[in-house]
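INFO  loader      accepted 1 record
INFO  loader      residues=287
INFO  predictor   begin
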Amino acid sequence: MSSTSDGLVLTAPQRAHYHEHGWLAVQGLIGSSWLDRLRSVTSEFVEQSRSLTESNLIFDLDIGHSAAEPRLRRLSSPTDLHETYWTFASTSPIVEVVVDLVGPNVKFHHSKLNFKAARGGEEVKWHQDIQFWPHTNYDLLTIGVFLEDVQPGMGEVGFVPGSHNGPLFDLYDGDAWVGALADDDVSSAGVEHACYPTGPAGTITVHNCRTVHGSAPNGSERARPLLLQTYAPADAYAYTDLVRRSPHGEELIRGEPARWARHDPRPCLVPPTGRYRPIFASQQRED
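INFO  predictor   done
INFO  writer      dumping tokens
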């Protein structure tokens, strides 16, 4: 498919924007039927969290979480927890978006649901994704889906244009994995030029695995749930992984399997081995 022609879902200018800037937003792509299903199942998990007093492998609790007021940072690997999430990740229009951007042969990698609770909603410090799960090439991307309307001031994600073509940053502090850029690197990464897409529920964002991104706390009275799915071209293979491995990880959801791995000559930082820890715990240096 030519980069100057329209794709299955995306227009030629949208595809060009993604490849040039390393990110893209498309307003209202996901319709009300999907949104209703996703919201319903998400509400079920929020209800389940009421009885918890500390985080576990599924629920990452935010400050102030209680039975009366559930406050979550993340639901880990939702595609492993409910068929609705997996059906959405593997069959909805976002898969066609991936095909438009990386080609016809696509594998699923992992998912997560970040809640960004109202009146707080912990920040996600500036980082790049691929150092958490290095692969043989850098064509992996993540699609975020707004489950509710997102307005300025809700801790919306900011993407630094063109940073996917820049340096890959060290996410260690000495020997400690912190999953975030050091202060000096933040100063040089161009975060002052970051773009913060907003839009109605059903809007999607797409960002390349090398794109520098982050989000501030949520200063609004509404939560900002963002459902995230990461995909890889079939010829990208993981060296190691710091995310919770999904039973669906490496599952081919479009096209044909690869016979040859494609290697980008640029090196990639490798994360530490060990137990899975959500990005919030690493960045906040929680035990």
